[in-house]
Specification:
single chain; mainly beta; seven-stranded mixed beta sheet
Length: 121
């Protein structure tokens, strides 16, 4: 019901920056603002982990490993989610996924296809 498309990934040197974007497209009857949005990342052999999340009205939350370096934001008028990543480290290398989640009478959980972020010299 919600389609998510990530973009902005790529190769960057340690200490560099990247800005990820997620474009959301909801089916008729759905509203972007009703979903909590988040960025997750996953590497081989490791569980997918939450990087940052943000509710419709703001109030961002971050994983301890990225706090102070990453900034999550959303624009409800554009149905868009962003992740500004600064001071990137090799440990940040992963596939980053955009997520939309809503809990009402049922749980709705949607994922994008992912975008590769590689931090290397």
């Amino acid at each position: 019901q919600v389609q998510l498309v990530e973009s902005g990934g790529g190769l960057v040197q340690p200490g560099g920056s990247l800005r990820l974007s997620c474009a959301a497209s909801a089916a008729s009857g759905s509203s972007f603002r009703t979903y909590t949005m988040g960025w997750y990342r996953q590497t081989p052999g490791k569980q997918r982990e939450l990087v940052a999340s943000i509710v419709s009205g703001g109030s961002p939350d971050y994983a301890g490993s990225v706090k102070g370096r990453f900034t999550i934001s959303r624009d409800n008028t554009k149905n868009a989610l962003y992740l500004q990543m600064n001071a990137l480290k090799p440990e940040d290398t992963a596939v980053y996924y955009c997520n939309a989640r809503r809990v009402s009478f049922r749980v709705e959980d949607y994922w994008g296809q992912g975008t590769q972020v590689t931090v290397s010299s």
